[in-house]
Amino acid sequence: MDTSHLALFVETAQKGSFAAAARSFDIDPSAVTRAVTTLEKSLGLRLLERTTRRVALTEAGKIYYEHARKLLQDLAHASDQARDVVGSPAGIVRVTASVTFGYRVLIPLLPALRESYPEIEVDLLLSDTLVDLVGEGVDIALRLRQPTDTSMIGTRLAKIRYHVCASPEYLNRHGRPIQPSELAVHNCLRCSVHGHLSPWKFRDASGRVQEVSVDGWLVVSNSLAMHRAALDHQGPALLADWIVKEDLAAGKLINLFPNIEATPTDFDNVLWLLYTSRVYVPKRVRAFIEFMKDKIGEYV
């Protein structure tokens, strides 16, 4: 039996359409349809019910799908273990992260990864929505929020700190706030990600926490765009240190409250590395994980 037909059938069942499965494999949808039809003919039964928009597993298809999915996983694990015995870390590591984190941190790290592990290939999936690691075949996720999926193994890579920043030109025009409460009268740049809009939270050296309701004319869904707006003198922005530390050092942005902690959510902001819980973690994935543990502190 052709395992490529099995893989296309499983992908079609998971994605719910031939077109979506074809996009995953970067092939023509007709090739997926032919592969599944050939598989059905060889078995003498129908695995999928077709409609104009979607496909669904038949009762027989549900049984076959579960066994086929496990078989493909077992074959992949067997291949990984066999390769790991005879060689250095090699193969594709599929990684997901937010667009901003990928641009600001991951991409600059890749040359060092390439130098350390020249046989590792990286398939980087950047998205501001949470990606299903199992469904999308992702090996590693880098996330800036506490993991809630107990099936994932999580490693804390770094503490994330936030700063309220504004450009010198903005402060010259509008004055520099001395206390966080004064932000209420400024044109603050806000992020529309859930929980980040307002209020902003502050904690002083004594541990006293203060919430400040902020407002402003610009709301954006991406912190990279908000960073650009802050550099363009549009107002104070609450941004992570890994986004602004170079601009703070260069004087392009000013940290308004250097002695006060700030956050859009809570004060335990951590960069997490997540991977799926499985019996065997391939050498290439282990190498990527150890590399991130070793190098991430230089960028975050």
UniProtKB/TrEMBL annotation:
<keyword id="KW-0238">DNA-binding</keyword>
<dbReference type="GO" id="GO:0003677">
    <property type="term" value="F:DNA binding"/>
</dbReference>
<dbReference type="InterPro" id="IPR036390">
    <property type="entry name" value="WH_DNA-bd_sf"/>
</dbReference>
<dbReference type="GO" id="GO:0003700">
    <property type="term" value="F:DNA-binding transcription factor activity"/>
</dbReference>
<protein>
    <submittedName>
        <fullName>LysR family transcriptional regulator</fullName>
    </submittedName>
</protein>
<dbReference type="InterPro" id="IPR005119">
    <property type="entry name" value="LysR_subst-bd"/>
</dbReference>
<dbReference type="InterPro" id="IPR058163">
    <property type="entry name" value="LysR-type_TF_proteobact-type"/>
</dbReference>
<dbReference type="InterPro" id="IPR000847">
    <property type="entry name" value="LysR_HTH_N"/>
</dbReference>
<dbReference type="Pfam" id="PF03466">
    <property type="entry name" value="LysR_substrate"/>
</dbReference>
<keyword id="KW-0805">Transcription regulation</keyword>
<dbReference type="Pfam" id="PF00126">
    <property type="entry name" value="HTH_1"/>
</dbReference>
<feature type="domain" description="HTH lysR-type">
    <location>
        <begin position="1"/>
        <end position="58"/>
    </location>
</feature>
<dbReference type="InterPro" id="IPR036388">
    <property type="entry name" value="WH-like_DNA-bd_sf"/>
</dbReference>
<keyword id="KW-0804">Transcription</keyword>
<comment type="similarity">
    <text>Belongs to the LysR transcriptional regulatory family.</text>
</comment>
